[in-house]
Every structure is written in structure tokens, then in C-alpha cells.
User: Fold these one by one.
Assistant:
Number 1:
Amino acid sequence: MSRLSVLTFTLLLFLFPRALAAQQTAITNEPTPPAIEKKAFDLLETVASRISTLRYPENRIAVSCAIADLVWSKDEKRARALFENVSREEAALVASVDLSDQRAYELISPINSQRQEVINRMALHDPDMALAFLRATRFPADAPMYSSNWERNLELSLSRAIAAKDPERALKIARESLSKGLTYELISLLAELERKNKPAAQSLYESVINRIKDEDLSRNQEAANIAINLLTSFQPPLANEDLFRDLLETVIKSALSMTPADPLTQQTAQNYFGSLFSSMQLVEKYAPARARAVRDWSQAITRTLDPHNQMYSELNQTVQNGSVDDVLALAPKFPSEMRNQVYQQAAWKASSDGDIARARQIAADYISDPVQRRQFLEQINNQQTWTAINDNKLAEARALLAKSSSVELRVQVLCRIAATLMAKDNKKEALDCLNEARALVSALPRNSTKVWQQMQLASAYATVELDQSFALMQAIVIQLNELVMAAVVMDGFENRYLRRGEWMMNGPNNMANIVTNMRHTIAQLARFDLDRAETLSDQLERPEIRLMTQLEIVQSTLTGASMGPMMGQPRNFIGGLVR
């Protein structure tokens, strides 16, 4: 992937979630009327009565866990009983995995994902119960994909929830974890303890620093990275200044002990180089006597980089600290095949500085590759489009949108504009935007992208013309029934869609994702018309998909949130960990 493509992708990752979040604000979060709440709980009881019909343990666990979460406030005893059953089922599921099977990892990965989902739900109500579940459902240490750090990070993320009520217990968990090694989650717990109990935070901070000092940072890259992270994220006055100086001195001493040319420590040294160079202000403030030595060492490290990396290092530093002209001045120093990247960086810097005209001019004058130039100019246009929307300049946004070649982007922007117009009670223009988007989607080829866009439109229509939402979803349900039936026939040929004869809601394939998005969208529509959403769910032919959709309908109706992009995923996250 070219550097321009990486920048483009990064920009889209930044912009699209903002667009989706804005679109979803159209979904009402008003309190559920009593009559609707009763209907929702009646439907929940129907779902609960069918748990025993599920053959796939992961499906039973997910449904039971979600129901326990939903009924906790009304019937804690029942909820605890459900969670206890979930714990037994999950432990049995873990024990059933044959670790000698070469394909055991295919089972372990989704089980661990579900464990975290269950932990997140339990922790919302009783963090100690969640901690007990975590410890009771671990795989043996010799299991494929087992990571003691991952397990300890989960414990520490739970201890952050525990810290709200019992900081001393959270500190004890942290110390137990620290005795087994350093993990990044310790820093997050440190920040939480600082908010809840400052003495406990300072005690943990000192313990972490002492553990860092016991490590050979030149040989332990993870510990070195944690030390750098702690330096940049927990500073005076939050941190004790003497301890902070001690940590900084430890990191500097470790860095200076490494010979730049030593292949055994070169990678760690180069990582230090990037971190310490960006932290020079801290060095100059808290260890000024070391500043000269750190600069000299950094220069020595720079000479160990290969020529290309040296150039990129100089380019990155200039982009961060220099002007657009400074970046452009680097181009003659670069080989001809690398100059396009310098010009792209200069153009992006001009754009980020708000000088769009100059960014366009740089692209037109210097970016010689026509494909990269076109991509860049289109992304500049897209950036301007979102900026115009955020500034409430809708006419300008629509004019800019006409220049975009991406149907997906145009649909997203039109939905966003429609939501903004509806907030101003301008239904006519909002409907025009959505109808324009619908025409664009209709012209797409019949594939998963089209289905996804149709579901986005169904959500967007909900506050403008609800009948259109249900019409779109009616067609999607019919289509997905056919696709699911075909997938069942193809099960095991290339992809796995079923396990124990049931649809895998967390299946590792695009078809499972489409079904999940369909459930999520129907659940959103239930906030506007529960009866129609339930009727639509009744048309789903696979009973387990129908049951899960109805559970999502209940959750959306009662809480204003669906179960998320993964089956059984809770509304909130404790640790935000990614395996």
C-alpha cells in the first residue's frame, strides 16, 4: 500500500465513524413508554423460554447473558442465576476443547472473545462476579493461543471497575499481576486509581517503577515500551516528581547502555530513539544533565538506520516540527522514486494546516503519479465535504459531494445531511437526500456492499419516512433468507457457517457479518415501531437467527442500544482490549 493510500485509509477511519455516529443520533433515546416496555418484556420472556432449543453452547451463553443483563434491575436474583448458569456452561465449553487437536485454536479464539463479552456484561453489575468468571473459565497455560498477559490484562481491566468501590482490592489485584510481569493495562488502572484513591495510585506507581528497574530494558522490548508509555502518560503533578525522575533516569540509562550497532539490541534502541527524541522536552526539564548525551546517542542511532529509514526519519521530524516549505525543501535530497512521498506529506501538512488551496496546488504541481494525484485530490475534496457538514454548510457539502466518485461515501454523506436537515424540521429536503442516496444504491451490483448500504439507508429513513425503512428491510430479509439457505448448503465446503447444526452468530465470514448487521438494523427500527419490527423478525426462517434478532429488538427497545456488531456484545466495554 502506498503512503498516500495509508493516509487515505487513515482519513477514512477518522471521518466515517463520525458520520455514522451522527447518523445514529437520529435514533430516538427517549424513555420507553410503559405499554411498549411491557411488550418488550413479554417478547423477552418468549425468547427466554426458547433458550433450551439452542444446541450451540455459544448461542445459549450469549442469549442467557444478554437476558441476565436486561432483567438485572427488575429481578437481580433471576439475573444472578442466569449468570451462574452462563459460568457453568462456559467452563464446560472450555473443558470440552481437545487441546491436542491441531485445529483447537479455531475453537479457542471465539470462546475467548465470548469470555470477554460475558465479563463486560457481568462487570456492569458485579465486577467481583466477573472476576470469578474470568478465573473459572481460563484455558490451561499450554493451550494454543493462550496468553498470560491477555488474561492478566482482563483482570486488570476488571480491577478498574472494582476500584470505584474498593481501591485497596484493585491495588491488591494489580500487585498480584505485577509479580508476574509488566502489562500495559497497569497504566490504565493507575489512571483510574488516581481518580479514586491518590495514595493507592502513588503506591502502585512506585511498585511499577521498581518492577521496571528490575527488568533488563535493553533485552525486554515490551517492558521498555511500557516504561516509555508510563513516562508520557503519567507525569507530574499526577506522578511523584522524584519517582518520575527515577523512571526517566532508568530509561535513559538503559538507552545509553545500548551500542547502536549491536544487532541484539538495535531494534529496541531504534524504538527508544523515536520515543526519547519525541520526549526531549521531558529530558531537558527533568534530567537536563543527560540531554546532551541523549542527543549524541540519538545521532548515533540515526546513522544505524538504513538510508531509506534515515530519510523517512528526517521527513517525519520535519513534518512534525517544520513548515510546509521545510518539507518541500527536502525533496531534492530524496531519490526521484521517493520524492512523490515528500510532496504528498507536504500537501497533507498544508491541508491539515487549513490551507486547502495550497494543498491542491502542491498536488497539481508536484505529485507526478496520476493515480496518486487523483486519489489525493479526491480525499482533499472528501475532507472538505465533512468539514462543510460539521460547519453546517450543507449546500457547500452537496456541491463538493458531486465531485466524489465513491458511492459509499456519497451515501454516507447524504444520510448525514438528511439527519441534519431533519433536526431542523426540513423533512422535504431530507427525503430528497435519502431518495438520491437510494437511487445511487439501486445502481450498485448485487453484492454484500449493496446490502450494507441498503441497511444504512433503512436506518437513515427511520426518522424521515419509516415506511421506507421497513420496505427496505423487508426486501433484505427475503434476500438473506435465500442467502442463509445457500450458505447452509455450502457449509464446510469453503467456509463454516454452522456448528452443531446452528448458525454461528460470530462466524468468521462475510455472510455472518451481513446477518449481524441485519439484526442490528431491525433492532434499531424497533425503537420506532416494536410491533412491525417483531413481525419482520418473524419472517426470518432460521429459528436461532430469529431468536437472536428478537433479543436485540428487546434490548434496543429497553435501552436504546442494540447488542453491537458481534452477537452478544454488550453495550459498554471495561477494558477495550483487542486480542
Number 2:
Amino acid sequence: MASTEGTTLARPSTTSHAAIDVAVLRLRQGATRLAQASLVQRMQWARLCTDGIAHVAVTWVEAACRAKQIPAASPARAEEFLVGPVAVLRYLRLMIGTFTQLHSGSEPGLPGKVYRRNDQLRVPTFPTAELYDRLVFKPLSAETWLQPQVAPDAIFGDYPARLTRQFIPPPHVTLVLGAGNVSAIPATDALTKILQEDRAVLLKMNPVNDYLGPLFEQALRPLIDEGLLQIVYGGSDVGSYAVHHPQIDSVHITGSIETHDAIVWGPDVQERCARKANGSPVVAKPVTSELGNVTPWAILPGEYSETQLRAQAESIVASITNNASFNCIATKMLITWKRWPARERFLDLIDSILSRIPPRCAYYPGARDRFREFVGRETIANNEKTLPWTLRRGVNADRDPELFERESFVCVTGETALDATSPQTFLEAATELMNDRLWGTLAAAITIPDAWQKREPAALEAAIELLRYGTIGINMWPGIAYALMSPPWGAFPGAILSDVQSGSGFVHNTYLLSNPQKTVLRSPLSFSPKPVWFSTHRRPEIVAAKLCGLYSQPSIWKIPGLLAQALRG
């Protein structure tokens, strides 16, 4: 692909209040049609949107690379495929499969047997039976644990009855406040609401990536023409008008906890505190959200081969550098054991790999100020375009509380070393730290030695059960579960609105599971071929583009070429 650096992007103009009124009126009419739409209509919309996404995919990637100033030869271009059109295409293909099964009179076809352990149903959600997952993502598996009250005959809740129109829900319009960092988020959030929840969507683009709005309008035109989706643009004034619009029934927010609380409880800090104390939010309508995390990654001490150590270090580095670290699930706190003999060598390995990854443009607003704050010193000039990958070793929750209590949303990661008497007590202490000291409930990771996992499976099981996170990665960055689309994605349930942590509600969830609690993503310690999302992959853009082609038009004949390129990574 040719370089696109230096091209000026056209930004959409701000949507007027009058235009929002017209858009919401159209959505009210569309919501009535949506509430009565058949599965055949939904399948048709999803297929047409798949064609639309495929048509704009390359333009989408080029636009994102221009906006984020990613050079033509950079491996980072693959990210814009993977968490852009590839993720949206995957979601649509999986939903077409689910709708097809419902239309045939069966429930969504799970990729394995559901089982119960410790009074909790566990449902396999990856690899799926679709899209050749067992070939493309062979080492990975995921299961979703449902909340304890879910009975075996209620795994799917009312989804099948509602989507097959055994009863018709009332018309509903929701406002989706789009994320500005990952380009698939606003699209898949909107699609989840429309296709699964029977909600017409007013999607407000974030000013950071509103240049994608016209491409979404083109790709998702079938939904817009039916009055199921309208896209608007602007800053906080537009967002506030839409949030409080009397014809908007609910709101979904993907962003920061500060943004959420300013919307729900009011922009004035003192008023916000008073309203929280009184239980009187500014926004009384239902609000769902995904709000980030101080994402932890604990490394259990033990015996690792050099191959395994390097693979885990590369995985951690990928979780830090992906999207220039402007991710709610970028690793922000490594948790190690002070007595682990390989601790310094492992951290040196991470630093060494980071040093070979070119720094990225700090495109997200406020990045330089946050970098200075979380590094703790003046290290960069205001005119610096890039920021250095920074691993702060030996941080302490009392001395460096900002790294534990707030998401930096910039390329700074802390490392804290726990003093425990054994690997077992270390795991217990790390679990307690993750649950009680670090802010957020979205995702966490644990690296586990093979020998220990075989010897102490009950201890690992107990730690996973105790962890209050919506996704837990074992030997794998939990952020990958976001892109898989079949597992539910969201914060651990149960937070209250005044202390919402990482948010409430789930998106994606293409098997339509009722009341998910957490997803456990598992992987071996080392991988072959090298995952395409690793920052050290040698051919990521080619592989990512081939994945995009596979999801655009699935065919077994595309697999050999895809695997051949993957093996050269």
C-alpha cells in the first residue's frame, strides 16, 4: 500500500441541535420497525453491512493510519486492520451464524459442552465453529462463566424468544457515545445494540476519530436507510444535548470514568459528590458503559524455558504498544515476586523488546500531560510528537498511588514486586492486590508455569474464581478477547452507578449468553506461528489484510495463503 502521510483529513461538520431532533425522530420510527423485524431481515441487514464494511476496509485503514501518523512501512498498520474492519466483519459473520441457527428453530450452536463447577455454569465461547478459528487461532480457547443464579435452561435468557418474535419488545432508542481510540468500538457497540438488543441507535462519533463517520455511513447504509442508525458529530455540547434528549431512552458510554461521571453526575466536582451522596444522578435514564482499567498482569514465579519467557515478554510488550498504548486494556501494572530469581532478567527482556519498537505518535488528546504525571518528572517537550515506552520498576502503592488508582491511558507501565513466602502465597497476594488495590474491573492477566499449573490446578482455579474482572487471560493478553467477538466484553458485573469502576453491561456476546460474569481466555506459554498482534511480527499487515479478506468472503481456499504468511512472521 502506498504511503498516506501528510494527507489532510476532512472532518465532518458539527451536527446542529435541530438536525439531532430530526435524526431522533427518524430513529423513533425505525425503532418500531426494528421491534417487529424478522430474523430473515436481520440476516439481510448483517450481510449487506458485511459487504459495506469490506468495500470501505482499505480506505478505513488508510484514514486511521493518516490520523495516527503511522508510516507506510510500520507493522503498526496491521492494528488498524485487526481492531478496525476485521473485528467488525468478524462480529457480523458470527451474528449471521447465530441468526441462521435461530431461524432454523435451534438455539445458538455453542462450540462445546456447557458444564457446571462450583455452582456456576461455564460456557465455551472460543474457538467458534465459524470462520476456521481452529486453524487460524489454534492455541487459544475461551469459556464464559455465567453468574451463579443462571439455571441450565436459561443460558440464553429471553434472546431466542425475543429475536424470533415470540414476543415483541417496545420501541427503544439508545445513544451510543463512541470511543475515540479503537475504530471498531463505535461500530460494534452500535451493531450490538441494533442487532441483539432491538434498539435503534444514535451514534455520536468522538471528535478524535470522527473522520471515520462518513465511512461508517457508507458501510452501514442499510441500517441508516431503515431508520435504525443515525450518526452525529461534535463535541460535548452535542453529546449533552443528545444525552438529555427526551426521546432517547438509554445511553451507552465507552470512554473514561471521568467522562462517565461528568455525564451521569454532573460536570461540577462538588455537585457531583453531593449527587452521588444523595443518589440523584443528572441522567436518570439507564446507562451502560465500558470505562477502562488499570490492567494488571501477574507473573507467577517458577521454571520457564527461554522460549516461554521471551514469548510472554513479547505478549506483554504487544499489550503495551498496541495502538500506542491508548487502550483501556493496555497492561499498566506488572506484578512480580521479589524472590523470583529470573525477575530482573524478565524485566530486562521486556525493556529490550520495547527498545526495538519505534515510538508512536501521541495522537490522543492530553497524552503529554498524562505522561509527565505518571512518569513523575519533566521528560518531554510540548512539541514532541512521540512518547517513549516507559516501564517503571519497583513502584509502590503508597509511594506511587497514581499508578494503582488511575488509568494513565498513555505509554507508562508500572511494575510492583510482592514479598511472599512461596509462589502459592504470591498468587494469593497478587489476587488480593488486583481485586482491592488496583482500579477497575475490566480485564487482568496471569502468567503461569506449566509445571505449577499441573501441580496446583485447584489454586489457579481458586484465584480465577476470586478475581473480579470481566475477562481474565491465562498466559495471554486479555485484550484479545475483545477482538474475538464471540465472548461477552465488559466489566465484572455488580458495580453501582456511583462507583461504577470499569462500567456495566456487555457487548459482542455473539452466542447471546444471559447474565455473563467473566470470560477466561487460555493460551500456552509460547506460540507458533507468532501471533499477528505481536509488535515483533515481521509480516503483520499482510496477515491482517488476508484475515480481512477471509472474513469478507469466507473460504477454505484462503486458509493456505493466510497460514503461509503467518508462518513467516
